[in-house]
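Subject: Sanity check before I submit

Could someone independently write out the C-alpha cells for this chain? I want to compare against mine line by line before I put it in a report. The sequence has 442 residues.
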Amino acid sequence: MKKFKKSYLAIIVALGSLINLPSCTRHDQVLDLTPAVLVTDTLYVAKGTATLQPQGPGHAWDGSIESVWANAPELKVKSTVPDVPVEFDGFIGNSTDVSLKALYDANNIYFLVEFTAPRANNSSALWYFNSTTKRWAQETGGPALNTDGSYRPPFQQDGFTFAWDIAKSTQNFNSLSCYATCHMRTSWGAGTAIDGATMHTNGPNERLDCWRCRSLYGGALNQANDVWIDDGAGSYPSASGTLDKNQFHNDWQVHNGTASSVPPTLQSPGYGADGGFTNRQSLQMTGTTGSANKVNVPIWLDPNGNYTGSLILVGDTVSKCKKVVAVDTMGVLTLADASTINPATGTDYKQIGSGNGPKCIPSTVADVYTGSRADVTMNQYYTGSSWRMLFSRALTTADTQYDVDFTSGGTYENLPFGIGAMFMGANGQHAITAGLTMSFKK
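---
Independent answer below. Compare away.
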C-alpha cells in the first residue's frame, strides 16, 4: 500500500469479512489526499454477455474464459495489505496483482476478476481436537505456532469484495472509496458495541452496497453475499441485541447465527437461517455441573468426513451428517444415533504439522442465499497461482434502497468503487485499492 503522509484522519480500511466481518483497527491511518497519491484508474465496461454457472451445489466452473471477454479492456492494479498495527499483524505488506474486466448488456453487469494467491484457502475456523487440553477448538484467523514451536499459517477462507456508493450518497466516496466508511474505535473489547466504532457511513442518508465473495460459498454455492452499510442510527440491532455502529447488514437478513438467534421473519422457509448458521453449540460435559464445565463443540458432523469443501450443507443435516448431543470430559462426542466419536484415536480430528486431519469439522452449516441477498451470482476457480472469479448481477434490482443502480442517471460515467482482496489465509486483513472508477462504453 502506498504510504500516506499529509492528513491524519480517524479512518481505516473498509470491506471486512462477512459472515464474521471484523473491525478494521483501533489506530489512525495517515492519508495523503493529493491526486498524485490516489489511484484514479478507470475500469471501462464493454458491451457483451457472459455466461455463469447457476446458483446452487453441483455447478463447478472449470475456469475457462469465454471469447466475449476479449472485447473488455483490462484494468490491472496492485493491492497491498495496509500497515495497520495489531489488527493486521502477520499480513501487513502482503500484496496481490489484481486484474479486472467488466461487461454489460440490456439486463446485467458482469465482472471478471483475477488476483494472485500462493495457495487456495477454502476453510474457515475448522474444528479440531486438542489432545493436551482434551477440548475441541477452532483454528484461529491469524498466524500462530504449532506445538513444536514452528510457524502455523492462518486457516481462513480467501475472498474478494466490491464496494459501491448507492445513488452517490456517501460523502468523500469519490476520492476515498471504501476509506470513507471506516472510523477509529475509541476502545476495544470483544463483542462490545461502541458508538462511533468502525465501519459505518457518516449520515442517515449515506449507504454503500457491498458484494463479498467468500471462497467457501463461491465454490459450493456459486454466490456472493450482497450486503449494505449505513450509519447505524436506528438500524437493525447486532447479533447481541445492541445497536452497533459496525453497520454491515446482509441484504434481506440482518445477520447469520444459530437458528434461535435469527428473527423468525428473517428466516428462510423451512430453514434456521438464510445463508446458513455457525456450526457451534455449548454443551454441559457429561457427569459435570456448573457453567465452568460447559464447552463448545460442533452441532453437526459427518462421521465419514465427506464434506462439500469445508462446508456442511443444510441438506447434509437430513442425510449424511449426525447431530452431536453430548460430550464427556475427554472430548468424546455422542451423536444422535447413539454412536460415538473418540477424537483421541488416530489423527483424523487433530492438527497435523501445519495442516489438519482429514475429518476436521467445518465451522459453518451453509444454505443458499435467498431474496435480495442472492442478487449476485458468482463462479470461482483456483488456477494454481491465482483466484479467477466471475460476478453477475442485474443492472437494477428490486432492492432500490440498498443496491446500487447501474442504470440511474449519471452513474454510467466515472462511477467510483472500491475493492478488497483476502488471501494467504487472511480473515479480514485485506489488501486494498481505493480511488477506482468505472465508465460504461456506450
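---
OP: Matches mine. For the report I'm noting this point. The first strand starts at residue 7 and ends at 9.
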